[in-house]
Amino acid sequence: MSQARQLICTLEPVPSMSFVRVDSNERFSRRPRCWRRFLEKSVKLSTHMSTLSARSLSWCLVGLFLLLTAAPALADEEEEMRYLFAGMLQERTKLKSWSCAITGQDIENGSFDMKLLSNGDSVRFTRIQHLPAFDGKASRGVDAKGHLIEVGEVLHLPKRDEVSHVCDNKQTTAAWYESNGKATTSKSTPAGREIMHLWDPRTAGIRLGAHEADYQEAINKRLKVWREAAKIEHKGALWTVTFTKPYEFQDAHLSLTIDTEHGFTPVVYRADMFWKANSKFPGKTDVQYVVTTEWKQLDGVWVPIRHREARPDGAVVREYNVSWDWINKEIDDKEFTVDALGLPGNVEQIAMDEKGVGISKDFLPAVAGPPPVQPQGIAWIRWVGYSIGFLLIAAALVSFRLRRRPKNSV
Fold first, then answer.
1. What is the largest CA-CA distance in the chain?
2. What is the SS3 assignment for 187?
3. For residues 183 and 174, is the Cβ–Cβ distance under 8 A?
4. Does the pLDDT of residue 165 top 90, yes or no?
5. Of 92, 163, 166, 343, whose CB count within 10 A is highest?
6. Which phi and psi angles does 329 have, rounded to 5°?
7. Residues contacting 169, CB < 8 A, separation 6+
8. What pTM was computed for the model?
9. Lowest mean pLDDT among 126-135, 192-201, 370-379, 391-400
10. Hey, which residues does 115 pair with through a beta bridge?
């Protein structure tokens, strides 16, 4: 029980108690002793309550101040995110068409050299894959216990180059492989373009995820996901965006460093795993991968000349070294058709249907067969159904009108 309630229980209630003035010592000394004790305790209690109120008010004011100061900071940080990613997107969009040579390696193609022509949507390229020597069986299977085993014929292949010529204009894909002397054409699909494993220079500086090939999608997706949980640091022209995703024992950090003075070019893309205090390795940081990119300015547009992704042990996952012939020139659409591949006369030409089955030896579309004929034996059933449906609708309308009709009407 509080001090005030104890006093109230021991004293007679006084209606004017709350109006007693205590600022005069003379008047205060003339009061009875019980009143003096009550007033002394009341003053102390009121002073204590005033202190608590002042403290509560001060904390409220501090909290309000922090909210008012933090809200603009958060808004400014989100605006900076939009500024950075919009700058990247705008600068990469400046590269509209190009002709370049790429020397590189990746996990999809191994080591290769490529000559690439593109208008930003359509592509035509010649790729020379430098395949290593191979000694073993051609394929793998699974034994009775579910273990992978090598099956098929044993092959002994020396180092060799696999040369392919491919063009795609978002309508038709044509591919000519010199090793088998055959060329195929098929309908262009996103899945078909994906298995080309073709690197777009506009995605340089960003580590793409699975099924992520479009530079606009890659940039917009990171802005959408990162902006609510990312921090931005400034070091001159270099701005670093760090996105953190928490887990139980670790925090995943993705950071992207952008050079704002040189075409908003991403120069470092890094992934780390930071071990928390409740883990077995508190404070430890494991680097997952680091992507570094070098750029140069060509005809007013910043273009990549080197893109490299490596693991902490130094193993290179992918690396592209680019030499540019020219950029942003008009390209005839015919450059992205099968005629531009320059097929020799002895190359067998096979058109493929949507299921990947060869349907002819020239590049003519498959001839559609006659439309299916409706069996005449069941045509009357449809007419009976139509008639019954019409009668039911008519009966419902008549019933509705009769119910709304007044009972005394003729």
1. 127
2. strand
3. yes
4. yes
5. 92
6. -115, 155
7. 121, 122, 188, 333, 336, 337
8. 0.65
9. 370-379
10. 101, 126
> Which DSSP state fits 30?
T
Please work out, in degrees rounded to the nearest 5, the angle formed at the alpha carbon of residue 23 by the alpha carbons of 18 and 29. Answer: 90
**What CA–CA distance (Å, rounded) separates 62 from 346?**
83
In 3D space, the residue among 158, 172, 162, 159 whose CA is nearest the CA of residue 124 turns out to be 172
| CA 54 – CA 50 distance, rounded (Å) | 6
- Give me the pLDDT at residue 319, please: 96
Mean predicted confidence (pLDDT) in 374-386: 49
Q: How would residue 8 be classed by pLDDT, with cut points 50, 70 and 90?
A: very low
| Rounded Cα gap, residues 295 and 94, in angstroms | 14
Q: In the Cβ-directed half-sphere of 111, how many Cα atoms lie within 13 Å? A: 7
Q: What is the DSSP letter of 389?
A: H
Q: 358-360 and 348-352: which strand pairing? A: antiparallel
The span from the CA of 341 to the CA of 155, in Å, is 31
Smallest CA-to-CA distance from 242 within 256, 252, 228, 221 is with 256
Report the relative pairing of strands 110-118 and 98-106 from DSSP bridges. antiparallel
DSSP, res 241: E
d(CA 175, CA 181): 11
